[in-house]
Amino acid sequence: MKYVLLKNFTYKFFEQIERYIKAEKDAENTVVPPDISKECISFSEVIYQSTNPSIAKEICEMFVKRYISLNPSMILSRSNTHYIEDCAFLNYWLNYELNKSAFYKNISVKIFYQGMEGYVQDKLNYLLLTNDEIFDINKDELDKIHILFNLYTDYHKIYSKGELICAPKNICLDFSNKCVQEYKKGIIKCQNKESDFCKAIAKFKSTYETLKENNKSNNHFNSKELIPLPSYEQTSEEFLSLFNRRKNIAIATISIICSIFGTILILFYLYKVQIN
């Protein structure tokens, strides 16, 4: 499987997003087997001894937890139905974790993974994740994927498995508002609506608006009460307005500081004249 092919499937896991939201949740309660934890310790102390090895160990163990939560039997190969999606998700997750770490944000994701793989692969008993499956995602693309993951995470706190699951109403509206704010961060990047990200965020919008139109309800909330998602034009106008307000505040602040500084200089000059 070629690198280019895997790269083209970066957003593939969103087609089965509930599986990966569940994996994140299940990972919180997944226990890393002692023998694998020992390998994570060895990996971190040998390769990242001088770069805060405790963080490398933690990332290694969190990666293992997500792998196990996706594959409880710990037997997975390229013939697995979810192979491509699982690779795309684990690649996103590892990129995100390393990028948010002050100690590891400048370390190649691919190199970090190859080092970790040398210690844990045999214990996890897998035949996937070759050099092509884990690669460095550029920062801009990674931010977009994370926005989309946040959107679906909040959406599924409102609606999951055919039912509204949020309660009470203010909590539902809070998750809806989070979707709107996160959606703005994404849609503003969509001048080119043909990019993979923009197609993916358009699909989210369709999913969200379908729920809003379907009049789903529980004892606390009706889906018609969901806050509407803004258009690209509305978001662009809002961001421009916010930028102009901040610019005006900055100009006003500089003017005040200059006035104060000018007054101080005049007073200092008058003081020196009086002394002389």
Automatic annotation (TrEMBL):
The chain crosses the membrane at residues 249-271. This is Variable surface protein. Keywords: Membrane, Transmembrane, Transmembrane helix. It comes from the Eukaryota. It comes from Plasmodium vivax North Korean.
